[in-house]
Amino acid sequence: MRKLLITGADGMVGSHLCRQLQALNYSYSKLTRKNGDIAAAETWQSIEPHDVVVHLAAQTFVPNSWKNPAQFIETNSMGTLQALEYCRKHGAALIFMSSYLYGNPAALPIPETAALYTPNPYALSKKMAEDFCRFYNSSFQVPVTILRPFNLYGAGQDTSFLIPMLIQQSLENEAFRVKDLHPRRDYLYIDDFIKALISCIPLDGYHVLNIGAGSSYSVLDIINTIQQIQQTHLPVLSEAQQRPNEIMDTVADISEAKKLLLWQPKTDLETGLRRMIAHYQSLTKS
After folding, report:
1. What are the structural domains, with CATH classification, of the chain?
2. What is the dihedral of CA 248, 238, 241, 184, to 10 degrees?
3. Which whole-number Å values give the CA distances from 113 to 107, 189, 252, in the listed order?
4. Which of 102, 211, 240, 279 is the most buried (most CB within 10 A)?
5. Which residues are registered as beta bridge partners of 146?
6. How far apart are CA 76 and CA 56, in angstroms?
């Protein structure tokens, strides 16, 4: 069984991944902030050889990328470059967690071949990281699998993200307060993403894969589902304020992931929300 190195192992995705790898008896090591800056070459120099690097570490909160674009590019782009250098030196494969990079799509569902769009420094940093991945594969034959997750949700996600924010508002039992009820997103439950990621571990060559649910829900759909689960009738207060360059709908074409990974999402929105609500309720009781 291959030995894995997990960067960003203490993040939301990394924590879920490590728990599942442990359950499956995988051999893995963690690389976290405690070990140093992933964008610094010296951080990687003392790490023993591994067979696969699962590169999750990143700055992710888009509004902050406007405040400090250089930091996002340093961490997300140059951090990936250092991971690729490590793979080149040790003959390791890289699984890279990229992002949604399609902007307002010309058509739905969105295939991996759709034009890429970088409207903010965060997206730019991920696109640059993908360019590094492509170069290291073509020039140095580093096996690379790039995953473009759509909207992930699950336990441990920060309340700056929509679904945890709405669940928190529901548990406060006052009202739902949002900017806009209409944008739709392809929401994928974290357990399904982890299964897709683990299915990539045997891959060789170069692959770019959308990982999503293959369907979309509006902000209002999510609120209505939470209300149904909680059996509440809380007021819904919308500012009806559309963000500049708002993407109104996203649906992932996941046919390539289904074919290559023999994977498909199993968790519907209601089931995923029920699990998240139960998780946050347990935190308030403890």
Report:
1. 3-153+188-212+251-265 (3.40.50.720)
2. -10
3. 12, 24, 12
4. 211
5. 96, 208
6. 10
Q: Which of 247, 180, 187, 249 is nearest to 219 (CA)?
A: 180
Q: What is the pTM of this model?
A: 0.96
Question: How would you write 17-47 as a 3-class SS string?
Answer: HHHHHHHCCCEEEEECHHHCCCCCHHHHHCC
Q: What's the pLDDT tens digit per position in 235-279?
A: 999 999 887 778 999 999 999 999 999 999 999 999 999 999 999
Question: Amino acid letter at 45?
Answer: Q
E strand residue ranges, 151-266: 151-153, 176-178, 184-185, 187-189, 206-211, 217-218, 236-238
Please provide residue 34's backbone torsions phi and psi, each rounded to the nearest 5 degrees. Answer: -60, -25
How do residues 188-236 score in pLDDT, each as one tens digit?
999 999 999 999 998 999 999 999 999 999 999 999 999 999 999 999 9
